[in-house]
Amino acid sequence: MNASPVRPSPDALLKAAKREARGRLKIILGAAPGVGKTYEMLREGADLLRQGKDVVIGIVETHGRADTQALTAPFEALPRKLIEHGGHKLSEFDIDGMLERRPQIALVDEFAHTNAPGSRHPKRWQDVEELRDAGIDVVTTLNIQHLESLNDVVAGFTRVRVRETLPDALLDDADIEVVDLPPDELIERLKDGKVYIPEEATRALSHFFSKANLSALRELALRRAAQTVDQQMLDHVRLVGEPGNWAAGERIVVAIGDQPGGEFLVRAAKRLADSMHAPWTALTVETPRSAHLSAAAQERIAAALKLAGSLGATLTTVSAPTVIDGLRGHVAEARATAVVIGKSRRGWWFELRHGSIVDQLVRGNEGIAIHVMPLPVHSEKEAGGATLLNTRGVIAGLAMIAATTALGVLVNPYLGINAIDLLYLIPVVATGTLYGMRASLIASLTGALAYNFFFLPPIHTFTITNPENVVTFAILAGVGLVAAQLAGRLRREANVGARTSIENAALAAFGQRLAAISDEKGTASVTCAEIASVLDVRTVLLLHKDGRPTAVGGAPDTPQLGPIDMTAAEWAFDRNEPAGRDTATLTASDWQFHPLATSLGVLAVLGISHDERGDPLPAGKSVLFATLLGQAALAHERLKLEGEAREMAVLKQRDDLRATLVSSLGHDLKTPLTSVLAAADVVANENPASAAVATLKAETQRLARLFDDLVEMTRIESGALAIRPEPIDLTDAVASAVHGLAAALARHPVKLDVPVSLPLVIADPRMLHHMLINLLDNAAKFSPQNAQITLSARREPQRLILSVIDEGLGLPGGSAGDLFQKFARGQGSDGAGGTGLGLAIVKGFADAMGLVVRALDRDDGPGSRFEIEWPEAMIRSLKAEVEP
Amino acid sequence: MTSPAILIVDDESAIRRLVRGALDRSGYACAEAGSAGEALAMAGRPGCQLVLLDLGLPDRDGIDLIPLIKAMDRAVLVLTARDASAEKVAALDLGADDYVTKPFDTDELLARVRVAMRHRTGTTTDGKLRAGPVEIDTGAHRVARNGAAVHLTPKEFSLLLELVRHAGKVLTHRHLLQTVWGEAHLGDIEYLRVTMRGLRQKIESDPGRPTLLINEPGIGYRFGA
C-alpha cells in the first residue's frame, strides 16, 4: 500500500472548477413517453419555487393534458418565439428571452428536441448548454432512446428509430432522476389516453409500447442512470483522493488459443478480474482449423482451461467458422466489457492467411477494453494429418483422371476438344471434395497434363502451341483449387459443428444428471459411465477414504488396481497433476489418473485407460475431457459442502439435545441435594458434635459444584454459553471467590496481592467467578495442608495477569497443556478427588471470553502457577472523574 | 389467632417440610403452598409478611408471581438454582427482596429470612442508621466507623447509605446506579466499581477481604450485617 497521501488528480479538479461556475443541469430521465417526466419536472420546479428560488418556464409541452397544464400555473412562463418556415408558423423556445430574463432556474422540456430551421441552434440541448454557460441552472426531460449510444440498441428491438439524438457526454455532469413507471401501468395509461402520441405516429408506436419493449427500455434507463452515478462517484473519488472501488457491471473474457502461454493469459485475466471484482469467462473457439491441431496444442488448451476453472472462471466453448467470429459473438452475447487476448509473433504469411485476431477485434468492438498480452514466438513444428499427403486420395484422383481421359478419347470424335477440358473438372472437383486440397491439386495437374498430352495438338506431346490452351490449363488448375478449398472447408465445418453440438448436448445432460444426485456412489457411477462412453475408455473414480485413495466406482465395472496404479492415483491426489500412463510420472501404470481439483482441494481422482491406445485420451478430446472433469469436480465439491452442512446440522442437534438433557438433569438433581443438605442441617442441629454430619454437608456441597461443572462443560461444548461481559474490579472478584470457597480453603492460608490501583477488566462476572473458584479449588486440592495459596494480579505492558500460585507438587514435565483437557488430572497429594472437569471449564470459559490461561511450574520453588491473562483490548483504564 | 408470617412456596414437599422445620425452630409460624395458584391465594391472607418463593413451579413461572405478591405488600425471598444469575437479577429487578441459591445452607437461609423480616418490621429512625461498625448520621451526612469519623465523597456517602438502609439485602447494579447516579447512568457500571473500591478502602478493616461491602458476582452488592 502506498503510504503517501493520495492527491486529487488535476484533471478532476479542473472538471470540478468548471462545473462550479456553470449552471447545473438536472435531467428527468424516462424510459418512454408517458411515464410522467414533464409532470415530475414541474413538481420539482414547484419545490424550488417554495424554497424561494427564481424559477421560469422556458418551454413545457403539456400536450393538452389538463393536470400538467394546471401544474404550470404558479410559474412565470417565457413567451415562445414564433418562427416562420415554409408557410408554417412554429413556436420554439426563446433562448434570447431567457438569457435576458436570467432566472436562477429554467425549466426546459424535451432535451433532445430539434429546433425549427432558422433557430440559433439546431438542437435544444445546445440552447441548454448556452443557458448553463450563462450560469443558469436547467431542469429538463429526456427519453432514454434519444441517447446517441443507445439509439441503435433501442432501434434494434423496438424497430422505431428516433432521429433526435444527443451526445452521451451531456449526462456526465448532470444530476439524473429517473421517473420509473412499471410497464403495465404505462400500458394502462396509454389505453386510458393519458399518453400523448402524435397522430401520424400512432401505428408505429403501437408496436413500441409492447410490454417487452417497455421493460427493456426501463432497464436501459435505470442502468444508464446508475452508470452515470457510478462515473460521477469515481470523479468525486478522484477529486477527494480517496482510493476505492466503485466498478459495476464489468465482465471479462479471456480468449484461450492453441498457442503456448495460455496459462499466462489466464493468470492475467484472473488478476484483472480480481482488481475489478468482476466475473470472468475462459473462452475457446472451435474452428475448422481446430480439428487439425496437434496433440500438444490440444494439451495446451486443456491445461489453460483447467487452470482457469480452478481459479474460478466459467468455462465456455463456442464453435464458429473463425476465431474472430466466435470471439465477437461471445463478447456480444455475454456483454463482456474487457477481453484478454494473447498476441504471438507469428509470421506475416500466417497473419495474411488467417488475419490478425487482435486487429480485427480492435476494429470491430468499440467500447470494449482489449488487453493484449505478448506471447512467445510460436516455433513448434506442428505435425498434423493435414500436412501429410493423403495417398488414398491421390490414387483415387489419378484413377478418376485416367477414367476421364478414357472417356474423353471415346467422345472426342463427336464433341471436339473444347468440351473435353470441361470433363476434367469432374474428377478435380470430386477429388477436392472427397480427399482435400492437396489430392485435388495433384489431380488437376495430372488432368491438365493428360488433356495436353492426349487431346491438345500436337497430340501425344506435352508441347503447347496454341496460347488459348495455356489458359485452359490454368483455368483447370484454378477451378480445381477453389473447389477443393471450398469443399474441404465445408466438410470440416460440418464435422466440427456436428461434434460440438453432440458434445454440448452430452455435457448439458451430464451436468443435469450430476445435479440430481446427492451421494458419492451415484456421482461416481454417473461420472465414470459418462466419461467412459464419451471418450471410449475404461474409467475408475477414487476418493480419499481412511487416508488413502479408494476406488468407489468405474465403468464398465470397478476395476482392481495394482500397486503401481494406486501409487499413481495417490500422486495425482497429492500433487494435483495427472499421473500414470503417458504422463510425466509413473508411466508404468495401465491407467492415467486425473485429479478433480476444486477450491476445497483435490476431492477425487479419475482414472482412464484403453487397451490399445498408448495415451488413453483420444486425440482431439482433451478440451472436452477437461470440461467433463471440471463438471465432475464441481459435483464433488457440491457433494462435500452438502455433506459438511448435514454433518454440522446433526452434530448441532445432538449437542443441543445433550445440553438440554444435562441442564435439566442438573436441575433435577439439585432438588434432592437441597433436601439432603437441609436434612443434614437438621441432624447437625440435633448432634452438633458429629463429624459425620460435617462430612455429609461438605460432600453434598461438592456434589452440587460437580453438577454445576457438568452443566457448564456441556454448555461450553455445545457452544451454548451466553456471555455477558462487563467491567469488573478484580479486588471484588477475588474477594468473592475466596469468600465463596471459604470452607475448602480452611486448611490453607490465602495471601492476596491485588493492588488497589489496578484498572478494571472486561469479563463475564459469573464465568470469572467460576474460573477462580475452580482454580482455587484445584490449588487447595493439590497442596499439602497449611501450604500457602497466593492470588496475585499485576499490570504489564499490553496485558494484565491474575495468578493463582500454590506450593504443591508442581506440574509433572510436559503436562501443562494437557491439564486443561477434559478429564485430565494431576496426581493429587492424597489422592484428592476431582473429575478433572474443573480446569477444562477454566479453559473453556477463558476461550469463550477471549482470555488466555496458562499452567506453569513455579520457578521460585515447588508448586505451580495458573495464570489468566487479559489482553490490552479488554482492560479498562479508570476514568479520572467518576463522580459526574 | 395469628396467621402464619411466612409462606413457603415449593413444589417439593420434602424441601417444604425441612425448611418449615428450620423456621419453626427459629420461632417463625409458617404455611406451605405447592403451586402458584395456592401461593397467590395464601399470600393474600392477613398476617403473611414473607413469601419464600421457588421459581420452578409446575403451574406458572415463579418470576410472574413476584410483582403480584409485591402488590400485596409482602416481602419475597426467591429460592433459585445456582447458575442462573440473569434469573436472579430479573427477580430482584421485579421487586424480590433477596435470593437464596439452591442447594442452600440452612444457616444462610435463616440469616436471609431474618434480614427480610427485620426489614419488614422497620428500623428505628432517630436520624441515625447503625449497621455493624458503621454509623450514619443521615441528617448531618456524617459517617463513623467504630466511633471514628470517616470522610466520604458525596457519591460514596449515597452508595453507603443505600446499602446500609437495606443492610443484609442484595441490591442490583441497576438499582444502585439508578439510586446514586440517576437514570442516565444505568450502563455506567465502572462508576459503581470505582466508587465501591474507594468506599471499601475507607470502611473495611481489611479491604482485600471485605466483610461489609460484599460483591455478588454478576448481580450486585450487599451490606453484610
Could you explain the architecture of this structure?
The complex is a heterodimer of chains A (884) and B (225). Chain A is α/β, with parallel strands linked by helices and 884 residues long. Chain A folds into five domains: 10-240, P-loop containing nucleotide triphosphate hydrolases (Rossmann fold), CATH 3.40.50.300; 252-374, Rossmann fold; 388-492, no CATH class; 526-599 and 632-720, no CATH class; 723-876, Heat Shock Protein 90 (2-Layer Sandwich). Helix content of chain A is 49%, strand content 17%. Chain A has 26 helices and 26 strands. In chain A, β24 (852-857) and β25 form a beta hairpin. Chain A is flat and about 150 Å long. Chain B has 225 residues and is an alpha/beta fold. Chain B has two domains: 6-121, Rossmann fold (3-Layer(aba) Sandwich), CATH 3.40.50.2300; 128-223, Orthogonal Bundle (Arc Repressor Mutant, subunit A). Helix content of chain B is 40%, strand content 23%. Chain B has eight helices and twelve strands. In chain B, α6 (154-165) packs across α8. Chains A and B meet through α22, α23, β19, α24 and α25 of A and α1, α8 and β11 of B.
Count of separate structural domains of chain A: 5
Strand content of chain A: 15-25%
- Report strand % of chain B: 15-25%
Which CATH class of the largest domain in chain B? Alpha Beta
Chain pair with largest interface: A-B, 50 and 44 residues
Low-confidence stretches of chain B are: none
Helix count of chain B? 8
Q: How many separate structural domains of chain B? A: 2
Distance between the termini of chain A: 45 Å
Main beta-sheet strand count, sense and barrel state of chain A: 6 strands, parallel
Rg of chain B (C-alpha, Å): 18 Å
Structural class of chain B: alpha/beta
Structural Rg of chain A: 43 Å
Shape of chain B: globular
